[in-house]
Amino acid sequence: MAEDWAMCNPDTGEVQYVMSINDNTQYSNGGTYNGLKTILIPADTDHVALIDLNYYDYSAEAFVSRGARPTAYYKWNTSKQWEVDTTTLMADLRTERNLKLQSCDWTQLADSPLSSDIKADWVTYRQLLRDITKDLADDLDTLDGFGWPSPPS
Q1: From the centroid of its chain, how far is CA 95?
Q2: What does the alpha-carbon distance between residue 86 and residue 92 come to, in Å, rounded to a whole number?
Q3: I want to staple 152 with a disulfide (CB 3.0 to 4.6 A). Which of 41, 50, 80, 121 is the partner?
Q4: Alpha carbon of 34 to those of 6, 8, 9, 26, 27: distances in Å?
Q5: What is the pLDDT of residues 32-81, one digit of tens each?
């Protein structure tokens, strides 16, 4: 008979994945497999909800609700709280910014068909893009709805 196992991060209790196993001889409740803690769960457990909404509290020996991830840029930490993953957030911000810069590189070429005034507008826009990482809001936790400067028309 297959049993379902939650594979949990040993430091945070975060459920990394759930698997069903027919041969349970290599697993034990609270044991370790590939660096993760193995927790036996009832077969009727909603695996997606378990992963998305819960963590395993080792001191209470129970799954505890942690609520949904606030945005895609949050990670579960060892203090059992959601925290902004600023490294990923800033990498994605810079990637999007760089794509916006790259898409208008042509405006700065010597043989660009733009007038000097329009070219100057593009210089200003491109500088605003370069400066986008300065003075970001302290509570920035998503790029959804981010206030990008508008390109010249």
Answers
A1: 15
A2: 10
A3: 121
A4: 13, 10, 10, 11, 11
A5: 999 999 999 998 999 999 999 999 999 999 999 999 999 999 999 999 99
